[in-house]
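ARCHIVE CARD
CATEGORY: sequence design from structure
SOURCE FIELD: tokenized fold
FIELD CONTENT:
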């Protein structure tokens, strides 16, 4: 499936987006209208022409059609009148429900998981990203088997949910899918080993890793570009970043860190997708510090925060222990709203209010990162022979040199170091540190 995805008639597929909500549901932080708006954004992210978007009240999902028979029939009539090509149901459909709705509505039906997988299929650029998305896709589709698998040999993005030549032999499909899943897992195991070696190398070099996490479209890539002076793709798109990117950043103390931009989270992120992206998400689990980037201008900012916390918990991460909350998009707030966010940030030593777009607050954020990474550091006094230029250079690189005075033979330094680096320099200097 290519990026433009025109149909045989030369137009973009017309879509209806339906968000089923329970009349008496309690405990949700997000209003149904906001959930519907997000589903519409997801549909537009793969260039669907959204002709209609509706909230559909559902008391209890029905096993056959998900919706009640009368509601399903009425929706079918609306779909026919609007010449809809694709119906998006912003929820989880069973294979039977999907197939029954397709037969009744006479159009392609995608649930939320299939829609997110389709977006990921188009966003992945590196081989690693493509493998991880394909693994999630195959795991999801294995129980459905509604299309042939000729797309496995395709060279372009996407996974063909919106097209395909039709049914094929189920047993043959199942074998082909199973064989492909085994091969992908083997390839991804190699990716994990490579990443482990890279992490070990960074630790040996004394480079802490700071990972950006947050809801999709919260501004992580814009912040990454602002702090690293890079040009990573950053647009007002859901899941604009899928493949992890790393760059070195120098902190105000002179210390260097590795900043990692990661895939954005979303509410109801498919479990298969989280599992498939384990190799990438290990960068988050192994990071020394997390920057949780929040879009404070978004009306559902609190709900988005809760969704990110939920995914991090699934990864076994307790973010409050090693996270800075970055309150982003100050530039989109009015004066009163900015004052509220500024006061909130001032009360919380582990948060920073910024605009990644304009750079406002980013220097203060770097100082806060510096402070957090230095909290476990110790100040030591060292005498290093002037002839040992390699150790002196290493101290400037790995620690924070607070003062230095030289005599004819030695450099006398006060340096703030991590405990591991202090032990390392003790070995270099023969235990004199």
């Amino acid at each position: 499936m290519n990026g433009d995805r025109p149909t045989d008639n030369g137009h973009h597929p017309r879509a209806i987006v339906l968000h089923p909500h329970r009349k008496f549901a309690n405990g949700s932080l997000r209003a149904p209208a906001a959930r519907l708006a997000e589903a519409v954004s997801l549909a537009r992210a793969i260039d669907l022409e959204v002709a209609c978007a509706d909230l559909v009240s559902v008391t209890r999902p029905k096993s056959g059609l998900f919706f009640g028979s009368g509601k399903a029939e009425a929706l079918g009539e609306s779909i026919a009148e609007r010449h809809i090509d694709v119906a998006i149901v912003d929820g989880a459909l069973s294979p039977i429900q999907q197939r029954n709705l397709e037969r009744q509505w006479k159009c392609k039906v995608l649930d939320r998981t299939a829609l997110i997988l389709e977006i990921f299929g188009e966003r992945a650029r590196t081989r690693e990203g493509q493998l991880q998305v394909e693994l999630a896709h195959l795991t999801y589709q294995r129980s459905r088997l509604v299309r042939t698998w000729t797309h496995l040999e395709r060279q372009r993005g996407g996974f063909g949910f919106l097209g395909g030549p039709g049914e094929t032999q189920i047993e043959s499909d199942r074998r082909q899918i199973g064989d492909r899943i085994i091969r992908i897992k083997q390839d991804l195991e190699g990716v994990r080993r490579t990443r482990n070696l890279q992490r070990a190398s960074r630790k040996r070099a004394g480079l802490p890793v700071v990972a950006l996490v947050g809801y999709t479209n919260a501004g992580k890539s814009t912040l990454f570009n602002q702090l690293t002076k890079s040009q990573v793709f950053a647009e007002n798109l859901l899941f604009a970043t899928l493949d992890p990117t790393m760059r070195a950043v120098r902190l105000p103390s002179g210390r260097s860190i590795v900043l990692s931009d990661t895939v954005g989270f979303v509410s109801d992120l498919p479990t298969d997708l989280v599992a498939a992206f384990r190799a990438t998400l290990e960068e988050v689990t192994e990071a020394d510090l997390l920057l949780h980037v929040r879009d404070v201008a978004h009306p559902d900012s609190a709900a988005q925060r809760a969704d990110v916390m939920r995914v991090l918990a699934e990864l076994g991460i307790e973010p409050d222990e090693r996270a800075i909350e970055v309150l982003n998009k100050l530039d989109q707030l009015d004066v009163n709203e900015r004052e509220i966010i500024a006061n909130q940030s001032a009360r919380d030593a582990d948060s920073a209010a910024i605009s990644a777009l304009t750079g406002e607050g980013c220097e203060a954020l770097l100082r806060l990162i510096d402070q957090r990474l230095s909290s476990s550091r110790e100040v030591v006094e060292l005498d290093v022979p002037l002839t040992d230029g390699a150790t002196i250079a290493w101290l400037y690189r790995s620690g924070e040199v607070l003062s230095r005075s030289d005599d004819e033979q030695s450099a006398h330094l006060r340096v703030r170091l991590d405990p591991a680096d202090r032990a390392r320099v003790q070995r270099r200097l023969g235990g004199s540190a």
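CARD ANNOTATION: Residues 14-118 form a domain with the Rossmann fold fold (CATH 3.40.50.11060). DSSP finds 14 helices and 13 strands in the chain.
SHELF: design records, drawer C
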